[in-house]
Amino acid sequence: MRFLKDTHIDFLGKRRSAAAISLLVIAIGVVSLVANGGPRLGIDFAGGTQIVVRFAQMPQIDEVRTALQAEGLDPTIQEFESDSSELLIRTPGSPEEDAPIDAAVQAVAAGLDRLLGEVDRTGIDLNTADPDEIVSVLLASNPSGYDLTVDPDGARADYLREVDPIFQARAMAGLLTVWEQIETLGIDSAVLAVVRDNAHLGGYAVVDSQSVGPQVGQDLRSQAVQAIVWALVGMLAYISYRFEFKFAVAAVVALVHDVSIALGAFSLTGREFNLPVIAAFLTIVGYSLNDTVVIFDRIRENNSVLRKLPLYDRINTSLNQTLSRTLLTSTTTLVVVVSLFVYGGPVINDFSFALLIGVLVGTYSSLFVASPIVYVWQVRDAAKRR
User: Fold this and answer.
1) Degrees to nearest 5, angle at CA 176 with 76 and 198
2) What is the rounded CA–CA span in Å between residue 252 and residue 258?
């Protein structure tokens, strides 16, 4: 399918303007990176703790930030677009030693307790506990007086049935905030008394937490850089084998160009650089190379079919002949990437942003960076032979 026919765009004639634009955009990105002290590393690379908190009534993010800063934290707080009742709280780790995740969770809990006026949060959090935790407490105190020696499994099953309404009510309400929500569920009073003595409710609950130590973050940074470098080396070897060395160098320069601009865009927009973003950058490398190889293949074909044409015209003709395919591929890819960026939510937002920049820049570099480098190289080779 071709929706552009018989185009005669002088791509090579715009190579100097394109080079100036590329250098300017990369320079802006470099200045931003230098000014910000490098890319903004996520906890995957910098180390730290990531905590997801669910609220019965969402507080103001600025109030949460102030409360956590009073506990000595320097948090980055983000609201989940897909769930307006949850906040994602990231706290950086210590560069000298691994900060225990429990300490970070306790500091967050202390700040939220003060902010929300929470008083008694001793024991198990009933908003995050699983049924087995509650049943273990009941078996330890055995308020129903079951013979645990004769039939422990039967007692466990009965206690599970007894407390099941609690978890059904929690699933309906999101969070259990007052005991009145449970007292009306028909649970045996002795069982409910044990649950009340060993568990607590509240206006918030820590539903997820994970931590990355500084040493692990440093190792991940090193591995991420190695992954990108080895990907570029592999591309260089592959294209040298399939085409010529000059084509390989042009393709790798275009890939470095794409990654540099994407990295600069992340710095300018203040986005975090983490493992999903590395995956996106490697995807950019593959996507951009695919476009470039198609164009190089057409140039090689036209070097035989149109050998009477000057090199300048052969390369321009190749670019115009593949333009329809290039734009169709980019447009259909962009439809998916834009959908991910707009509707995918905060978890994959940085990933989809990297892909969005990569698709746009990769299409541009295939037309205005890689092929012009091949042309300039071949012209200089011809001049040397003369």
Assistant:
1) 100
2) 10
Contacting residues for 351 by C-beta, under 8 A, at least 6 apart:
276, 277, 279, 280, 340
* DSSP for 23-51, written as a single string: HHHHHHHHHHHHHTTS-EE-HHHH-EEEE
Question: 67-95, pLDDT tens digit by residue?
Answer: 988 888 878 787 765 557 888 888 876 54
Helices 245-269 and 214-242, packing angle to 10 deg = 150
Do 231 and 329 belong together in one domain? yes
Residue pLDDT, tens place only, 264-297: 999 898 888 877 888 888 888 888 888 888 888 8
Q: What is the CATH number of the domain that holds 71?
A: 3.30.70
Q: Which two tokens stand for residue 336?
A: 């998916």
Q: Which residues contact 23 (CB under 8 A, 6 or more apart)?
A: none
> Can you read off the two tokens belonging to residue 168?
């059904």
* Pair (331, 240) in one structural domain: yes
- Residue 267's closest CA among 22, 79, 31? 31
Kind of pairing between the strands at 48-55 and 204-212: antiparallel
Domain co-membership, 251 together with 278: yes
| Pairing outcome for strands 272-273 and 40-41 | parallel
